[in-house]
Amino acid sequence: MILKIAKDHQRFRQIVKGKIRGDLRKFLTRGELIGKEGKHLISIPIKGIELPHFRYGDNNDGGVGQGEGKPGDPVDSDAQGVGPGGTEPGRHIMEVDVTLDELADILAEELALPRIEPKGRHNITTVKDRYSSIRQTGPESLRHFKRTFRKALQRMIMTGAYDPDNPIIIFERRDKQYRSWKPIKKPDSNAVIVYMMDVSGSMGAEQKELVRLEAFWIDAWLRRNYDGIESRYIVHDVQASEVDRETFFRIREDGGTKISSAFKVCKDLLDRHYDPNEWNTYLFHFSDGDNSSESDSRECCRVLRENLLPRSNQFGYCQVASAYGSGNFINVLREHLDDVENMVTSRVNTKDDIYDSIKAFFTAGR
Fold this sequence. Notes:
Distance between the termini: 47 Å
Radius of gyration: 28 Å
Structural class: alpha/beta
Largest sheet: 6 strands, mixed
CATH class of the largest domain: Alpha Beta
CATH architecture of the largest domain: 3-Layer(aba) Sandwich
Order of helices and strands: HHEEHEHEEHEEHHEHEHEH
CATH superfamily of the largest domain: von Willebrand factor, type A domain
Number of helices: 10
Shape: elongated
Number of domains: 3
């Protein structure tokens, strides 16, 4: 019985993963993916998994689809949007918990992302044994006493051999459960992610929601590839400063934009805390592409070429659409740094574009 339940549970998990994978772009579009985030689990809302079945009815019934009508006309109602509550059951939504590692694996499978190859001295892949499953055979030193006892007790109760007045549990060979391990390969290396964002007046709530969703995916994938991850956050208008995560996604200014200020603060941060021989470095900048001047855009390219790009695994620039931004900075980067392999640029005009932006950032596997 227990073996059958374990197999059913494993099959259910595979079905759930398939549902998440099939609706991955929709989750990104609607922002449903980031619901309740715990320490190790993410709650994913998915539609109830039901078996298909036929529903029989009377073909003589009137209803939608009969008679004349135009798109937008109310159906069976004197006033649009007004009427009694419905009596039919709704489509059930349930939440399933998946780990960040499972989520990252689903992302990798759907987007066909390669494993990242860390650089630097700490790029040795370590193999660790994780005791995460149960088997029916094994050495006695790995026997799981509680599970063995529970299975023997269940068997004796089901067969009627258990006597509450004389509670003696007799183990049989089939009752024994043993701990089992799986070899886990994981890069034994550290990485730092530096997020930079324009917080001037042209970057509103809609733009920051795009940044929040994309940053979540970036975190999920990079944490799957590295043992140790540190995230740092820099915001800027005409001046730049380092802030915490909450401030990064909430702050809004109404000043101008000087992008080079963020790149210089990033350079100082890396110089002080992150030796390029010890750390894998990922830099991401989010902006609407509006900069204060052409001369500052050229200064940005100089700082990137001379200071940031040589020490980074990758620099990713994501330009989000804004009604107030000129959107020219991405063209400047592509014109002056087109020969640099570890720079990737993408445009995100709507939530639909996040899917392709993440794929562009990590397809190279740097």
